[in-house]
Each structure stands twice: as structure tokens, then as C-alpha cells.
Amino acid sequence: MPLTSVIDYFNAHLDTFNPQASLHRHARFRYENGQVSAAVAGKHVRPRQQPILEPAGLSTVAHDSRIQIVEPHSAQETTDPLYFFSWDSEDVVFLDRFLRVLHALHHMSRHGIDASPLVVDVHWRHLQAVEASHGAVFEALLAHLGLHPRELVLRLNALRLLTDVHAREAARSFQRHGYHLLAHGVPQDAEPSAWRLLLETGAEWVTPEPHAMNVARRGREHWPRLTQWNLEARAAGLTVWWPEINEPGDLECVLQLDPVLVSGNLLGDRQQYQWA
To answer: Is the full-model pTM beyond 0.85?
Structure first.
């Protein structure tokens, strides 16, 4: 089925993303000049992605998704304003599913149906809002794209997984539906029990805390802790991904930690768009 027909289908059935949400009346997918984007609550949003690479040959094994909010004279890479103004939990659930479908549409437009896995976010407020059967509705939405949950990696907040029983139950539900799971932002001082807990929730990939790359740049005094973190994650059987390889010297620095996956602006620019 042509992508335009799929987009038309979704636009005609936005209420299925969450029938209780009011936001579906203020959202729409777009396909213009060969580019997928969307309008949500008066804001123009567009998906972007960056390759995730294995270090040895720097070949692409997955793609990392992000959202840009586009203003008349600028673009900001964040979803915070969208979630901030979604006060109702039902709208949060709708928004989360809507953005994930947007990324899937964009992914297919760029790479086709046989593309490498795509990493997409699951917002922590979505986990709070849905009581059970996490992943079922999104699985049905993916089916309209000809995609299976195993072709997605869901990015979940590691601290939520480590401290919130409901978040762990949600993760296990996602896993049962076939999704791969990423625990994002595992603390540098994680206890041995933390790695076991993440494995029990179904996590397969991990990333360090967002500021870890800055810590690595500061000097050798921080290396014992970073090295230990990597060793513990690898020993637990988890795939270690270091993002934010953005500055000269970052890749050489991180390669000493023996990561499984890397990504960043130095390794593959986020897709540039030409808009009429």
C-alpha cells in the first residue's frame, strides 16, 4: 500500500490511538515534498533520525529517532512542550502513540519495510496512564504499516524501571508483545542488583546517564567508574550503547570503554530537510 494511503488511513482513524483523548481532533499526519511530518495542537512537528553504529566497521545496525518542533524561524529538538500542554492523561497516551507512529512512517519513507530497527521513546507519563496491556494498541497500529514489534526498540527511563513497580510491569508487558527494550540513563553508580532488575524487566539495551559523555571528556580520574559501569553492563549480557559522540575525540575516547554500539553527530548527521 502506498505511504500516502497509509497516512490517509491513519488520519481518518486517529480516534483509534486513544478513543478517550480529545487531542485526536487537533492532530494530523502530513506527507509533503516526499517528507513525513505532522501537526499537533497547533505545532508543526517533524521526525528526524540518526544511525546507530557498531564500532568496528561503523556499519548501521539501528536508527535513533527524535522530534523537532518547527517554528517560523527556528527548530527545537524536543517533545517537552507537547507533553507539558497535554494535561489530561488520555491525551498523553494519544500523543505518545501518535509520535511513535510518526517515527515509523518516517522510517519507512526513508528505508522501506525491511529497514534496521528503530529506537522510539515511551514517555514515563504514558506508563503511568495505562494500567495494563502495554504495547497492544501500538502493535495494532504497527500492523497497518506491515511492521512487527520486534522491529522497534522502546526507550524507557532506567530510573523509572529501577524505582517504579508499575513501570517494570509495563516493560514486561511490552516484552511479551515482542518489543525490544532499552533502559535509558542507567546511573554510573548502579548496584549489582540494578542490573538484575533491568534484566528481569526485559531490558536488552542500556545507555549511560545523559551527562556520561561530558564526564568521559573531563579526564582520566573518572575512567575507573565508567569502565566498571561498562564491564558490569556487558557482564549482565546487555547491549551497551554510547550516544552523543558529538565532539572531536569522542569516538576514540569511548572506544576504550569497548561499547557495543555508538551514535552521534560526528558519526552520521541527522537527516536534513528541504522544505518548499
So the answer is: yes
CA distances from 34 to 5, 27, 76, 105 (A): 14, 20, 22, 12
Per DSSP, the residues of the chain read --HHHHHHHHHHTGGGG-TT-SGGGGEEEEEETTEEEEEETTEEEEEEEEEEEETTTTEEEEEEEEEEEEETTEEE---HHHHHT--SHHHHHHHHHHHHHHHHHHHHHHH-TTPPPEEEE--HHHHHH--S-TTHHHHHHHHTTT--GGGEEEEEEHHHHHH-HHHHHHHHHHHHTT-EEEEEEE-TT--HHHHHHHHHHT--EEEE-TTHHHHHHH-GGGHHHHHHHHHHHHHTTPEEEE----STTHHHHHHTT--SEE--TTTSPPPP----
CA atoms of 64 and 37, how far apart (whole Å): 17
Which residues, 6+ apart, have CB-to-CB distance to 87 below 8 Å? none
Cβ-contact 227, 255 below 8 angstroms: no
| Per-block mean pLDDT, blocks of 10 residues, the chain (276 long) | 91 96 96 94 94 92 95 86 88 97 95 86 93 94 94 97 96 97 96 96 96 86 89 96 93 90 81 35
Strand partners, 183: 156, 206
pLDDT on residue 269: 52
For 227, phi and psi rounded to 5 degrees? -65, -45
Contact present, 229 and 208 (Cβ < 8 Å): yes
- Cβ 91 vs Cβ 17: under 8 Å: no
How far apart, in Å, do the first and last CA atoms of the chain sit? 26
For residues 24 and 16, give the distance between their C-alpha atoms in angstroms, rounded to a whole number. Answer: 9
Cβ-based neighbour number of residue 192 at 10 Å: 10
